[in-house]
């Protein structure tokens, strides 16, 4: 699943390489990916890209004509000039530019890639309801406390709730909770001051460090870089890098019982 550090690196790469280029067309192989039925992708033909930025886990391609918002969903991605990573997913859309090409892929069993042609990115419902972004330097402790204090919701689910924290998904929620030494099934409302302090520090540090580490990596190498950097996510059965204990699976994620649950193995 694309998450804020990798999508940020992708947006910065595409902004650097595609800004000021004109869009020749937006070619769509999977018509269901277009979510704004009242708007046509042909509106973007001939428009010049004025900037590309990340909004949560979405790409916002601004042009002089309209915005093309790309929702990457659970398995969407973008590649530049045909650079293909091992096991690359099928291409569902192409954006030929003056002298370059952006291809949009989707590796999911169900369609997750979505395209929106809008006058303002905030017209996309998922963007309009995004919560504050912990990867941003503007994210504050007040925003964190407002989202966490009193919430009767398990921490892993809360971290992945886009209306609460924009950009966090399955992998980074595991990493954040491991660094914070907190159980994925603990309820936010039950945290004491020290635990909330650890969670805030882990949330901001893990994401911002990852943004810094991914910066400058080409799009086709970003997924591999993310996997290689994981401490616990995707590493069930391996040794915890902190305590040496065995990392266990829980649902679609992973955790260290010694570091996070006082030795208890979650059902």
Descriptive account of the structure:
Helices cover 30% and strands 19% of the residues. It is α+β, with helices and mostly antiparallel strands and 267 residues long. It folds into 2 domains: 4-128, Alpha-Beta Barrel (N-terminal domain of MutM-like DNA repair proteins), CATH 3.20.190.10; 141-260, Helicase, Ruva Protein, domain 3. The strands form 3 sheets. A 4-stranded antiparallel sheet has the order 1-6-7-5, covered by helices on one side. Helix 1 runs antiparallel to helix 7 and helix 5 (170-180) crosses helix 6. It is globular and about 60 Å long. The mean pLDDT is 96.
Topology:
Blueprint lengths: L3 H15 L8 E2 L20 E7 L2 E6 L3 E5 L4 E5 L10 E7 L2 E7 L7 E5 L6 H4 L12 H8 L6 H6 L9 H11 L12 H22 L4 H11 L18 E3 L2 E3 L1 H4 L7
Antiparallel strand pairs: 1-6, 2-3, 3-4, 4-8, 5-7, 6-7, 9-10
Keywords: DNA damage, DNA repair, DNA-binding, Glycosidase, Hydrolase, Lyase, Multifunctional enzyme
GO molecular function: 8-oxo-7,8-dihydroguanine DNA N-glycosylase activity; class I DNA-(apurinic or apyrimidinic site) endonuclease activity; damaged DNA binding; zinc ion binding
InterPro entries: FPG_cat, FPG_N, H2TH_FPG, Ribosomal_uS13-like_H2TH
């Amino acid at each position: 699943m694309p998450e804020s550090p990798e999508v940020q690196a992708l947006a910065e790469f595409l902004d650097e390489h595609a800004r000021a280029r004109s869009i020749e067309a937006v070619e769509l192989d999977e018509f269901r990916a277009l979510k704004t039925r009242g708007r046509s992708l042909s509106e973007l033909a001939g428009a010049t890209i004025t900037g590309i930025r990340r909004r949560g886990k979405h790409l916002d391609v601004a042009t002089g004509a309209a915005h093309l918002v790309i929702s990457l969903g659970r398995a969407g991605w973008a590649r530049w000039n045909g650079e293909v990573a091992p096991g690359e997913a099928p291409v569902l859309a192409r954006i030929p530019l003056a002298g370059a090409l952006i291809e949009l892929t989707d590796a999911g069993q169900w369609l997750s890639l979505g395209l929106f042609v809008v006058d303002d990115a905030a017209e996309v419902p998922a963007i309009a309801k995004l919560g504050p972004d912990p990867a941003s330097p503007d994210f504050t402790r007040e925003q964190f406390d407002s989202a966490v204090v009193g919430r009767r919701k398990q921490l892993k689910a809360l971290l992945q709730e886009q209306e609460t924290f924009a950009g966090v998904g399955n992998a980074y929620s595991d990493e954040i909770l491991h660094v914070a030494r907190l159980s994925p099934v603990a309820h936010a409302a039950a945290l004491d001051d020290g635990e909330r302090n650890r969670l805030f520090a882990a949330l901001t540090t893990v994401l911002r460090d990852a943004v810094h580490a991914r910066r400058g990596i080409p799009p086709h190498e970003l997924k591999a870089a993310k996997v290689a950097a994981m401490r616990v996510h995707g590493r069930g059965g391996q040794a915890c890098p902190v305590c040496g204990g065995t990392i266990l699976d829980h649902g679609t994620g992973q955790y260290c019982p010694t570091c996070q649950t006082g030795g208890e193995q979650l059902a």
